């Protein structure tokens, strides 16, 4: 016989209902657990896709910067107002006489920067001599102290330097020197004039003995790269 409680409810039926509820709860719990695992898997895959996308974007941006044409690249070095004014003054003359004498403007400008300290040296600011050109003419020269690299060391000496009326005249005389050569060798700088790019021209200058500084060519190359002076070569 079935036992009944005081309400007349069959105990076996009540127990069966409780058991069904427990089974239903276990099924729901298992279902929620599976859903949670699936959500974790989806979210994990999503994060991996996002991370991979960010990596690809970073790589693409790096390659874009590396292979972007030079004309569209931002300046690699900030120019002070004084330096910008100096480039505005010597740039057009370097281009003009570069075409006339077949001298790369970037080389001329880099030499002017290096040898005159952006036009601020006494020789450049007072006498418009950008390249340290010396002179034996007492009527058109000025004696100043300078440094030269001799026998493995820098020495300070007195030298007579030529005076120019302006920077353009100094640039023209400089390019004439490279074209005409020296009194003892008219072809001394021919390799500079025949250079295909500023790197070759800078190294040819040093090889020809233009300056006593053993690092002269590399200093010119560094200046041209830093301030993108080779943009003047395309004018």
UniProtKB/TrEMBL annotation:
Keyword Endoplasmic reticulum: no
Pfam families assigned: Glucosaminidase
Keyword Hydrolase tagged: yes
Signal peptide range: none
Residue span, Mannosyl-glycoprotein endo-beta-N-acetylglucosamidase-like domain: 71-233
GO molecular function per UniProt: amidase activity
Keyword tags: Hydrolase
Assigned protein family: Belongs to the glycosyl hydrolase 73 family.
Protein name: Glycoside hydrolase family 73 protein
Species the sequence originates in: Bombilactobacillus apium
């Amino acid at each position: 016989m079935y036992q009944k409680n005081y309400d007349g409810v069959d105990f076996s039926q009540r127990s069966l209902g409780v058991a069904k509820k427990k089974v239903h709860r276990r099924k729901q719990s298992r279902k929620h657990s599976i859903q949670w695992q699936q959500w974790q898997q989806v979210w994990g895959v999503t994060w991996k896709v996002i991370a991979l996308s960010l990596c690809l974007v970073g790589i693409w941006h790096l390659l874009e910067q590396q292979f972007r044409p030079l004309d569209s690249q931002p300046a690699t070095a900030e120019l002070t107002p004084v330096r910008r004014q100096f480039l505005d003054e010597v740039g057009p003359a370097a281009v003009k006489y570069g075409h006339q004498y077949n001298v790369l403007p970037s080389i001329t400008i880099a030499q002017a920067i290096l040898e005159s300290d952006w036009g601020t040296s006494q020789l450049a600011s007072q006498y418009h001599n950008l390249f340290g050109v010396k002179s034996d003419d007492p009527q058109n020269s000025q004696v100043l102290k300078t440094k030269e690299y001799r026998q493995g060391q820098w020495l300070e000496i007195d030298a007579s330097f030529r005076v120019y009326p302006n920077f353009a005249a100094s640039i023209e005389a400089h390019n004439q020197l490279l074209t005409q050569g020296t009194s003892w060798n008219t072809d001394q700088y021919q390799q500079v004039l025949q250079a295909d790019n500023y790197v070759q021209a800078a190294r040819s200058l040093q090889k020809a003995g233009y300056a006593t500084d053993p690092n002269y060519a590399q200093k010119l190359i560094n200046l041209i790269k830093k301030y993108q002076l080779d943009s003047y070569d395309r004018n």
